[in-house]
Amino acid sequence: VPSASAQTLFVWGLEAVPGLEHSLFSAFSKFGPLYSVRTHRNAAVAGPGYYAVLKFYSSRAAHRAQRACNGQRLFQKSPLKVCVCTKQRAFQMPVLALNSNKCQELANHYLGFNGWSSRIITLQNVSGFDNENEEMGKTLQKRSLKYLCAVEVTIPTHGVRSRGVGLAEADIENGEDPLEFVTATRRVQKLAAGKALSSAFQKILLVVLDTGKVAVEYNCTQEEPTDSLTEEELKGLIQVN
């Protein structure tokens, strides 16, 4: 699960059928997990109807879907036209990591809901001191929340373990409001845990074979110093830093 780079299909000749995006998802997800499905109305010069942009995690799945669905009616009266988008951008875009929800979606598809697990090793408040700002003769307390989380992902049948660390922060405008403080704390904790989970998944490679079987490898090239620490050492390091 290295990144959010996906293979794109362009689908046109779509009719205005009820639940169009759901119909597309149902038809194309049979070939592999979809990263996203987006439908758009045709431009006025192109006449009535819609087109769609579908993104697969797997290039192999996208090509299989294109070959099987191009020229087929599927869920409408007229046949669809499907092509693989091969045009490259004029400049290189930065490769973004998959967010934690997408990582879990992909892991569930290829490994099964019981094929992997995750646990939080530590979740600690690493906030600094409050900042005092003078504004119109009044002293306002602006609290800054910062949490650091360490997560471990385990894939037992393949003997793979991977750790990830995530940091999240947010400012609380009204530090005296307990409800706002609690709400912000939960939000920052959840965000830190999500970043840590995503970080752990970046070191795991899912290799989908032609037979449909999935091989799992740990990507040692992305190994970090914290990976070799014990849990107590990791907690202590976070507390010190």
Automatic annotation (TrEMBL):
Principal subcellular localisation of the protein: cytoplasm
Assigned GO CC terms: cytoplasm; nucleolus
Record's keyword annotation contains RNA-binding: yes
Residue span(s) of domain RRM: 7-87
Location of the protein in the cell: Cytoplasm; Nucleus, Nucleolus
SUPFAM superfamilies tied to this protein: dsRNA-binding domain-like, RNA-binding domain, RBD
InterPro entries: DSRM_RDM1, Rad52_Rad59_Rad22_sf, RBD_domain_sf, RDM1, RDM1_RRM, RRM_dom
Claim: RNA-binding is one of the keywords in the record: yes
Annotated protein name in UniProt: RAD52 motif-containing protein 1
Species in which this protein is naturally found: Tinamus guttatus (White-throated tinamou)
